[in-house]
């Protein structure tokens, strides 16, 4: 099976332009090629614009980009109160449901990161929630003689493995491109490339896609190798995981397979079964 490319899409601004702003990818334009990723936002936040809130049925991931002036503070109803700096990640597997709150650790400094929602398959939607974290110093790196580098935040690359292992297979790579890197898309896997700076040209099976900064493309693999040759230095993120071929219904803070599961999640939340998390200062 040859690699199937989606259209290239631009990240669109959203937010209040003050304490919170984001460049958001409309992943519906990718169709099934986005799965298991449901949301991908390049965000900037100051202070604490969002109070404690619930999640269930998916994993919410915050990856702090290396240019972020501030650090991430992540609190949850499991008792975690974490601070993660640039290059670090907090991976929250909400499962059956939990409360959390994320903000800039220093309200006076801007936090710049990527917010990603990764769907969980039906067999994992009701597991016990858990939170994983990895600081920049714990993220392994692959380097080439030409100066290319890959931060292996989640998953693996060319024999380099991240110590952060989510419940379901996923790869998150932060790539600084100087000459060329390759990536093998697994059978029945999808991949999404979001370019932070510069531009990349993606080659596979005699086809190519040009992707500029703040644009993204998705592709479905068949074990083929995708090549990213660089005409100029660039930085991009690559997200990849197995396609979840199940119904997806997203309503508010919950991602489930059907309306009955959504209603049940709201009932668990109202009954306090997702735990409690007081706003900061209380």
Describe the protein in words.
This protein is mainly beta. The chain has two domains: 10-138 and 248-274, Jelly Rolls; 139-243, Jelly Rolls, CATH 2.60.120. The protein has one helix spanning 259-270, and strands at residues 4-5, 9-10, 12-15, 20-24, 37-45, 53-55, 58-64, 72-76, 81-84, 89-93, 98-104, 111-119, 130-134, 141-143, 149-154, 156-157, 160-161, 171-177, 180-184, 189-197, 199-204, 207-212, 215-220, 225-229, 234-242, 249-251, 254-256. Strands 1, 2, 14, 15, 18, 20, 23 and 25 form an eight-stranded antiparallel sheet that branches. Strands 3-4-5-12-7-10-13 form a seven-stranded antiparallel sheet, with no helix packed on it. It has a four-stranded antiparallel sheet with strand order 6-11-8-9, with no helix packed on it. The mean pLDDT is 93.
- The top-level CATH class of the largest domain is Mainly Beta
CATH superfamily of the largest domain: Jelly Rolls
Radius of gyration of CA atoms, rounded to a whole number: 18 Å
Q: Helix/strand/pairing class, anyone?
A: mainly beta
Number of helices: 1
Q: What's the CATH architecture name of the largest domain?
A: Sandwich
- The low-confidence runs, each spanning 5 or more residues with pLDDT under 50, are none
Number of domains: 2
Rounded mean pLDDT score: 93
The ordered string of helix (H) and strand (E) elements is: EEEEEEEEEEEEEEEEEEEEEEEEEEEH
The name of the CATH topology of the largest domain is Jelly Rolls
Biggest sheet details: 8 strands, antiparallel
Question: What is the CA-CA span between the terminal residues?
Answer: 56 Å
Oligomeric nature of the chains: single chain
Total number of strands: 27
The helical percent reads under 10%
